[in-house]
Every structure is written in structure tokens, then in C-alpha cells.
Amino acid sequence: MSDMDLKGLFLRHADALRGYLSRRVGDPQLAADLVQESFLRLAQKPAGERIDNSRGYLYRTAGNLLIDHIRQEARRKTDSVPHEALAEIEDNVAGLEAQAMAQQQRQALKQALAELPERTRQIFRLNRIEGMTHAQVARHLDISDSSVQKHLAKALAYVMQRLQDEEVMPTDE
């Protein structure tokens, strides 16, 4: 088949064939691919082989290619899951990682607090965990406000240093 004949057939039938396939598969891109493959098969026919009805040949070829495509998809198909479900799985994994990291950080914080002197640990707990103000902690423990601030500064510096050390050198568990 000459290039001019093929071009003429393409111009006459490609849009209608693409529309036919699009309606059947609901995927315009797949329909365009099948149309292209149909015309490619027509072009690859040996020169001596005569086709009486080119339009019929194209539709039959496109229909057969569609059937082949559907069969291949069915063979390859695993139960596909919507992207949203995959995102949820990723979120869950990320959530589990975040939970594990948070657990490790809480454990490191507990360890660092346990290493503080009793009075400093008590002031830290009252202020940072129970939410008391400096003045409330001072009244509760019958110490000066500046003493509370000094103990807190000491506790925070120590805890921050220990947490940074944990990040640099993680423990093997």
C-alpha cells in the first residue's frame, strides 16, 4: 500500500475509529494507541496481499487489538487499589515511623530526666510537665523564683544536650 493511500485512509477513518474505540474502552489515550497500531498493521501488509474493504479491515483489526489488550490486562491484573488507599498505607507507615521516633525521644527524655539531681528533676516536672509557673513552683517548694530559674536552665541545658547526643549516636536495640 502506498503512503498516499495510507494517508488518505488515515484522514478518512482515524477520527471515527478513535471515537468508536473511545466509547468502548472509555480511555481516549488507549483508543488513539489502538488506532495507530491498526494503521501500522495495515501498512505492514505485504504488497501482494489485497484488502477489499480497508475500513472493515481497520475496524476488525482495532477490535481484535482491543480484545488482546483486555486479555493482557486481565492476566496482568492484580487487585488494583485506588491511589487514595495507597496514600493511606504510606501515611500509616509514616505514622508508625513517627510513633517509633516519638517513643524513642520520650525514652531518651525520661532517661535524661532520671539523670538529673532530684530537686532539679522535681522543678522541671512541675514547670514543664504539670504547667506551673516559676512563681507557683517557687511557692510550692518554698524556694526563690531565681532558684527555680537556675534549676530549670540547668535541666533544660542538660536535657537538650542529652537529646542531641542521642541523635548523633543512636543506640542499637
TrEMBL record:
Membrane recorded as keyword: no
Annotated keywords: Sigma factor, Transcription, Transcription regulation
Domain RNA polymerase sigma-70 region as annotated: residue spans: 9-76
GO BP terms, alphabetized: DNA-templated transcription initiation
Gene3D superfamilies tied to this protein: 1.10.1740.10, Winged helix-like DNA-binding domain superfamily/Winged helix DNA-binding domain
Gene Ontology terms for molecular function: DNA binding; sigma factor activity
Residue ranges occupied by any RNA polymerase sigma factor 70 region 4 type domain in the UniProt entry: 106-157
Family, similarity comment: Belongs to the sigma-70 factor family. ECF subfamily.
NCBIfam families on file: sigma70-ECF (TIGR02937)
Identification of the protein by name: Sigma-70 family RNA polymerase sigma factor
Organism: Pseudomonas spelaei
Upper lineage: Bacteria, Pseudomonadati, Pseudomonadota, Gammaproteobacteria, Pseudomonadales
